[in-house]
Amino acid sequence: MRALSHLSAYQHMWIMVLFDLPTTTPEERKAYTQFREFLLDQSFVMAQYSVYLRHTTGRTQSVPIIDRIKTAVQLEGHVDILQFTDRQYADIVSLRGRRRNDSRENPDQLVMF
């Protein structure tokens, strides 16, 4: 049995996808919706409009996810993919109106597929 050290907050990774896709024409709106649904099908959750997050167990798991995102992106628009550790995620300062939340709460349970 593996030691608990493999659960380190410095090894677990988060993937954040930020995107700005055009929605002027019906075709562009359809592509936007398809990309958003693709992210949801890939187990991402919406953090804000056009900002989606997913937890992974490490960089080796995030590489194929990022490759799938790259193939799903349409020709137009702007998509950024950020990766950061679970420890860095816990240090995010989040403002909701004028109230400040010093740190984010990490999920209580990991979802494994």
UniProtKB/TrEMBL annotation:
Binding site for Mg(2+): D20
Cofactors (names): Mg(2+)
Keywords: Antiviral defense, Endonuclease, Hydrolase, Magnesium, Metal-binding, Nuclease
Root EC class: hydrolase
MF terms in GO: endonuclease activity
Domain of life: Bacteria
EC number: 3.1.-.-
Subunit structure: Homodimer, forms a heterotetramer with a Cas1 homodimer.
Function: CRISPR (clustered regularly interspaced short palindromic repeat), is an adaptive immune system that provides protection against mobile genetic elements (viruses, transposable elements and conjugative plasmids). CRISPR clusters contain sequences complementary to antecedent mobile elements and target invading nucleic acids. CRISPR clusters are transcribed and processed into CRISPR RNA (crRNA). Functions as a ssRNA-specific endoribonuclease. Involved in the integration of spacer DNA into the CRISPR cassette.
Similarity-based family: Belongs to the CRISPR-associated endoribonuclease Cas2 protein family.
Protein name: CRISPR-associated endoribonuclease Cas2
Organism (species): Hyphococcus lacteus
